Amino acid sequence: MIFDIRIIFTRRKDGRRQNDKKTNKDRIIKKTEGHCFLLFTSYSSMNYLYNKIKVYFSKNDYTLIKQNDYPRHEMIEIFKNSRNPVLFGTDSFWEGVDVQGEQLQSVIIVKLPFKVPNDPVTEAIIENIKEKGKNPFNDYQVPQAVIKFKQGIGRLIRSKEDKGIITILDNRVIKKSYGKKFLRALPKNITVKSKKEILEMEDTE
């Protein structure tokens, strides 16, 4: 199986929140003329970004689909049958969604999908791991996030012919030691480029 998958890592030099995250997504979405999933880890960040960038996309040229505006199955059908679709989704869209071919060409992962530590179930599991003298972050939270990460990437890789762009906007994947575990979960035959490289390269295509 051959995949043409490009990975974009956005980097912050000063540790502060990037003020161009909207621009990153805006440009990347337009590079593939939609045909894109944006995957979030919370409804608040999804709604915030949706409201920020929707004004930059003409309703005549793009179809923006946000989770909770329609039932899940209806969102998928709209995506499959719409002009230049862009889907904004959280937890349930990281897995179990099958869109093959050219209709899905890009997946943007906004943040690494760690479970919320104060979720009652997650909190109980973490406490149980601590009681056993183990490290809940390394032994549970990271492995679970890597599984979810692989599932998110899998939205783009559904058949032998699929190709496209995977964008990772969370620089922890390259700045933190545990980021290597996420990188090892990526398909082997990929091209890894920085944000600047990929956007400049596509400007010439």
In total, how many beta strands? 7
Query: Rg, please?
Result: 17 Å
Helix segment tally: 8
**Beta-strand percentage?**
15-25%
Assign an overall shape. Answer: globular
Strand order of the largest sheet: 3-4-2-5-6-1-7
Q: Kindly state the mean pLDDT as a whole number? A: 81
What kind of sheet is the major sheet?
7 strands, parallel
For the record, give the distance between the C-alpha atoms at the N and C termini, rounded to a whole number: 24 Å
Regarding quaternary structure, what we see is single chain
Structural class: alpha/beta
Write the element-wise H/E pattern from the N-terminal end onward: EHEHEHEEHHEHHEH
Uncertain residue ranges: 11-21
How does this structure look, described?
- With 205 residues, this protein is α/β, with parallel strands linked by helices.
- The chain has eight helices and seven strands.
- The chain has helices at 21-31, 43-53, 72-81, 120-131, 136-153, 172-175, 179-184, 195-203, and strands at residues 5-9, 36-39, 63-66, 85-89, 106-109, 164-168, 191-194.
- It has a seven-stranded parallel sheet, with helices on both faces.
- Strand 3 (63-66), helix 3 (72-81) and strand 4 form a beta-alpha-beta unit.
- Helix 4 (120-131) packs across helix 5.
- The protein is globular, with a radius of gyration of 17 Å.
- The two termini are 24 Å apart.
- Residues 11-21 have low confidence and may be disordered.
Protein traits:
alpha/beta, 7-stranded parallel beta sheet, 205 residues
Topology (elements, then pairings):
Layout: E1 5-9, H1 21-31, E2 36-39, H2 43-53, E3 63-66, H3 72-81, E4 85-89, E5 106-109, H4 120-131, H5 136-153, E6 164-168, H6 172-175, H7 179-184, E7 191-194, H8 195-203
Parallel strand pairs: 1-6, 1-7, 2-4, 2-5, 3-4, 5-6
